[in-house]
Design brief:
Elements: H1 4-16, E1 19-24, E2 33-34, E3 40-42, E4 45-52, E5 58-65, H2 74-126, H3 130-135, H4 137-146, H5 149-183, H6 189-211, E6 214-218, E7 222-226, E8 232-235, E9 247-251, E10 258-262, H7 265-270, E11 275-278, E12 289-291, E13 294-298, E14 304-309, E15 314-320, E16 341-345, E17 348-354, E18 361-367, E19 374-383, E20 390-393, E21 396-400, E22 407-414, E23 419-427, E24 434-440, E25 445-450, E26 453-462
Antiparallel strand pairs: 1-5, 2-3, 3-4, 4-5, 6-26, 7-26, 8-9, 9-10, 10-11, 12-13, 13-14, 14-15, 16-17, 17-18, 18-19, 20-21, 21-22, 22-23, 24-25, 25-26
Helix pairs in contact: 2-5, 2-6, 5-6
């Protein structure tokens, strides 16, 4: 025998069944009454849609429960889940669109210059000024090198358009889901879920393609503030929720335990109002990062990494970085106990250091942000002490040739291919002494500490079209 609860569940499920009827065209079906909002009602059901095929062969009428009749059923909860999921994707799309807008102006300007230069060469070659044409031969060779960049720029603009289309599609899906949540409309949940999953997969692929790429340019810096000593670090949390724009500030490279928290970049720039956090141990160097609400730093005079929860003011994890040099054994060329440099990019948390086993050359390790264990390591051929500073972008380690005077990014090691190359990307060293340089994937900008000034550099990345 079936229990009363089972009978009640079955009765409730029957109410939720979609009434879809296909009948030959003939006498009109019984009409229901019209509700106050103009919707046809039939004994507790409303006509959601009605259609006839092009040949006049059948009529399809779809009925759904009245508004609010099933606001607490399982289908409503599923739709609510999908709605939340798409809204999360919408926030990612907004961030992606903001990133693409930053570069599209540079792309369009470069494209105009390239095409103009190409036309100029054609004019010179078509003329009879042979002596003048000879002066252009070297430039023409350079133009041949740049010519493949033109279709790349076209593709980049197309990708920017794709982002806008993603935004529109996400908005349409959100509107549909919001209506479904209110009305429990007769849309198959599996089909709807597949549509959202497809959008999510395409968005993820688009973000991976657009948000990551090869570093091609570092803009002139913007001086945010002048404060503190000659050395230090400052940062924001790339995984902070929307609206959380707090700034974290750490003055000096040793014998200090106090971290300042400013409520926003504007507050950091214009006021001295801050909250102070006291660490259980002093830090070493300027390679600290904040990620997902925790501060990661190297304990002074040790190769111990510490994860400090900024909300609870407690150490949530500590672990030794095996074989890593410390206490000025393998520092950057400027010194400052910068043996272990922690950094964050699109791929997560990284540590840059050197070991005796690798002859003092840079070792790069990806870390699990929860346990601090080493997930994977790469050894490079670049001496740690010869590096000015370093930062990670999209799984590639970029190293500067120095910390003072004329500075550039000249070495890049890719973890995707385990290969390196020498590059030439100028880095404006406005105040003559860079002691901290870190990339923030949310802002797609470099944060720097330069001789007591806190700077921001926008960067330009291009994805590589295979």
């Amino acid at each position: 025998m079936e229990s009363e609860e089972e009978n009640a569940v079955k009765s409730f499920l029957l109410i939720l069944l979609l009434a879809v009827s296909f009948t030959p065209v003939g006498p009109a079906a019984p009409q229901g009454r019209e509700g106050p909002d103009g919707v046809q009602e039939r004994d507790g059901w409303q006509v959601f849609s009605s259609a006839q095929d092009s040949g006049g062969g059948c009529v399809c009428t779809v009925l759904t429960p009245l508004n609010g009749a099933c606001s607490r059923d399982a289908r409503s909860k599923q739709v609510r889940h999908l709605l939340d999921k798409v809204q999360n994707m919408s926030r990612s799309i907004e961030d992606l669109e903001r990133r693409s807008r930053q570069d599209i102006g540079v792309v369009e300007k470069m494209e105009v210059e390239l095409r103009g230069l190409e036309n100029k060469f054609k004019e010179v070659e078509a003329g009879h000024e042979s002596s003048r044409a000879r002066h252009y031969q070297a430039m023409k060779a350079k133009m041949e090198e740049l010519r493949p960049l033109i279709p790349l720029l076209e593709a980049y603009k197309a990708d920017a358009l794709l982002v806008r289309r993603f935004k529109e599609e996400a908005a349409n899906v959100t509107a549909t889901l919001a209506e479904l949540h209110d009305r429990v409309a007769p849309v198959d949940y599996q089909d709807l879920n597949a549509r959202v999953a497809g959008l999510e997969d395409r968005l993820r692929a688009c973000m991976q393609r657009l948000a990551c790429g090869k570093l091609t340019r570092i803009a002139e810096p913007v001086t945010i503030k002048t404060s503190g000593s000659r050395f230090g670090s400052w940062m924001t949390d790339p995984l902070a929720p929307a609206g959380d724009n707090r700034v974290w500030y750490m003055d000096g490279y040793h014998n200090n335990r106090f971290v300042r928290e400013y409520e926003s970049l504007s507050a950091f720039m214009t006021t001295d109002n801050f909250t102070s956090h006291r660490l259980p141990h002093p830090w070493s160097g300027t390679g600290q990062v904040v990620l997902n609400g925790s501060l990661y730093f190297n304990k002074f005079q040790s190769h111990t990494l510490i994860k400090f929860d900024l909300k609870s003011s407690l150490i949530s994890r500590s672990r030794q970085l095996d074989f890593a040099g410390y206490n000025n054994m393998y520092h950057y060329s400027w010194g400052g106990h910068s043996d272990i440099d922690l950094m964050v990019d699109e791929g997560g948390l990284w540590a840059v250091y050197a070991t005796n086993q690798n002859a003092g050359n840079i070792v790069l390790s990806q870390l699990d942000p929860e346990s601090l264990r080493v997930v994977r390591s790469w050894t490079t051929n670049h001496p740690k002490r010869s590096a000015g500073e370093a930062f990670m972008v999209c799984g590639t380690l970029y190293v500067t040739n120095g910390y003072s005077g004329a500075t550039k990014v000249y070495y890049a090691f890719s973890t995707n291919s385990s290969t390196y190359e020498y590059i030439d990307v100028p880095l404006a060293n406005t105040y003559g002494h860079i002691s901290m340089l870190d990339y923030n994937p949310r802002d797609r900008a470099l944060y720097a500490w330069n001789n007591g000034r806190q700077l921001l550099y926008n960067v330009t990345l291009y994805h590589i079209i295979q």
